[in-house]
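Appendix B. One record, verbatim.
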Amino acid sequence: MATTTSLKNQLSKKEGGVPAATQNSIKGLMDSPAVKKRFEEVLNKRAPQYMSSIVNLVNSDTNLKKCEPMSVIASCMVAATMDLPVDKNLGYAWVVPYGNKAQFQMGYKGYIQLALRTGQYKAINVTEIREGELISWNPLSEEVEIDFTQRKSDKVIGYAGYFKLINGFEKTVYWSREDVEAHAKKFSKTYNFANSIWKTDFDAMAKKTVLRNLLSKWGILSIEMQNAYVADNNVVKNIEEGTVQVENSIDFETGEVIKDVEYSDQVQESFEGTPFENVE
């Protein structure tokens, strides 16, 4: 199966007299046999429609047009391997410009979708909490009391995430808006960008932050979800079957930047001694 690196090698050679500028445009790369084959391997009959959505995505975003085309394709390939659309209006996954490269970002809807596919979640949701709705919150026990009938205004003061597993284990967390903003300023590479999703859809990014943290600490992570965690907010370096390698990754708990992180489908989770040990 072709990798991102091998695709670059193949595409570096001119094909039948096609101008290099055309080859290196998104449309030109999408028309190349090597790229078509890779998407067809992942998406089968849905490949043409998905590839068209990538071209439309880039054509509608001036900043993405300035990014290296292969970084855009690599990011879109990650979304394709998870069977998530890259249409920015749907909110499952985004491809955003970071300098002259594109980076892959999961949306909160994407995390919900991947969680539901595991078959281990009975319910999962994340929502805005508005002024008056929060009754109490204990950070130590993580017990939260919310009454949606007590809303005083539409002002969003925080975000709550919740899931319940089919084995009965459930968890709820609450983050104030200030907590989310502090986290984003510390860890997000694009938070201060004028065109970042943090600026255009703060609530969507806030809900993703809360849900991602909730699942990473307490949820059951399938191989597909682990893949999403590695690729999220990073420039994809290479993609092979079962493996995603990124240029760097940020540990969202410590803030440590880890270079050349590689995820493989050999990673296994041990749930012995946890609430999930009896989940099969």
